[in-house]
C-alpha cells in the first residue's frame, strides 16, 4: 500500500513524521506570516494617507512588476543553484526592505513614492525566491506524499493569513513601524531555518543541465540566444501542456477579476464601518475558512474528478465575491470571506499539486517562475485592476462585477480546456527529464 492509498490518519502521520517537510513548511510559514502582517499594515497606511482606492491598486502593482521583470532569471536561478540558498537570500532582501519601511514610518517620511519604491524592492526579493521556494517542496518529499504535504502547506499558509493580518492590524493601530519590525524579524528567522532543510532528490545545476542537454543536444552555452532560450524554457513547457496552461491561466484570470481582497480596506471603512483591527479580523476570517478546508484536504485529499473540483471551486469563489461586494453587514462579509477563501484553497491545492507532478524536475524551477508571474498577476496586478476600477465605480460595484466576471471565466475555460476538465487523478510521479 502506498502513502497515497494508506488510511488518512496513517498517511497524515507519515507526513507529520517527515522532518525535512515539516521544517520546510515551518520556514515558509514564518516568512508568509511576516509578509501577511506587512501587507495589512501597508494597505491600511496607504489608504489612511490618501483615501483613494487607486493607491491600493498602485501598491499591488509595485509588488507585482518585479516578478515580470525577473522571470527570465528567477527560474534558471532556481534550477541551477541550491534552492535553499536562493530562498535564504530572498529572505535577507525582505529583511532590508521591511527595515526601510520601519524607518520611513518612524521618521514620518510617509511619502507614497518612497513607500512604493521599497515595496517594489520587497517584491523583487520575493520574486527571486518564489520559484525556488515553490520548487523546493517536491524536492523534499517523495511524490506519494506530495498531495498531503501540499494540503498541509496550504493549511499552514492559511494559518499565516489568519494570524498575520491580525498581528499587522493590531501593530498598525499601536505603532506605525511595529508591523514592519515584526516582518523583518520573521524573515530573519526563516532565513536561518531554511539552511537546515534536507532534500531527497538531486537539484540545481546537474538536473537542469541534463534537461537542457536533452532538449538542445549540448550543455550550457555562452551565446545570448541560448541563454534567452533557456530562460523561457518554463514558458514553453507551460504552453506545451494544455493541463498546465489551463490550470495556471484559470487562476490568473479568475483572481484577476475576483481580487476583492485588495479593496478590503475601502470596503471595511466605507461600507462596513470597520477600523484597522476590524480589517485585520476580516482578513483573518478568510484565513479561517481556508485553513479549515486545507486541514481537511491534508487528511483526505481530493483523489477523483480533479478537473471538475477545480472548476467548481473557482465558480464558488466568484459567487462569494459577489456576495462580499453586495453586502453592508459585517457578519455577512465575514461569511463571504470564509466561503471565498475556502473555495480558493481547493483550487490552490489542486493547482499546487498538479503543476509539479506534470512538470519534469529539470525545468521545474523555470515553470514555477512562470507560475509565480501568473499568480502575481492574479494577485498584485489584480489588486491594481481592482484599484483602478474601484476608483471609477466604487469598491462595492467593482467587487460585484469582478465576481461575476470570475464565474464567466469558469464557463469559458471549461469549454476552452476540456483536457483539464476531464482530469480524474493526480499523476503518480513527475515525468522524467
3D structure, described in words:
The chain starts with 7 loop residues before the first helix and ends in a 12-residue tail after the last helix. The protein has 19 helices and no strands. Residues 1-7 and 203-224 have low confidence and may be disordered. Helix 7 runs antiparallel to helix 16 and helix 12 (242-257) runs antiparallel to helix 18. The chain is globular and about 50 Å long. The protein has helices spanning 8-16, 19-50, 53-69, 71-80, 83-107, 112-140, 146-174, 178-194, 205-216, 224-231, 233-240, 242-257, 264-271, 276-299, 306-326, 330-357, 364-393, 395-416, 418-421. The protein has one domain (8-421): MFS general substrate transporter like domains (Growth Hormone, Chain: A, Up-down Bundle).
Provide the fold topology:
Layout: H1 8-16, H2 19-50, H3 53-69, H4 71-80, H5 83-107, H6 112-140, H7 146-174, H8 178-194, H9 205-216, H10 224-231, H11 233-240, H12 242-257, H13 264-271, H14 276-299, H15 306-326, H16 330-357, H17 364-393, H18 395-416, H19 418-421
Concise structural overview:
The chain is mainly alpha-helical and 433 residues long. It has 19 helices and no strands. It starts with 7 loop residues before the first helix and ends in a 12-residue tail after the last helix.
CATH architecture title: Up-down Bundle
Task: Name the helicity range.
Answer: over 70%
Instruction: Identify low-pLDDT runs.
Output: 1-7, 203-224
The CATH superfamily label reads MFS general substrate transporter like domains
What would you report as the Rg, rounded to the nearest angstrom? 21 Å
Structural class by SSE content: mainly alpha
How many structural domains does the protein architecture include?
A: 1
Question: Strand count, sense and closure of the main sheet?
Answer: none
Gap between N and C termini, in Å?
Answer: 27 Å
Number of helices, counting only DSSP H or I runs of 4 residues or more? 19
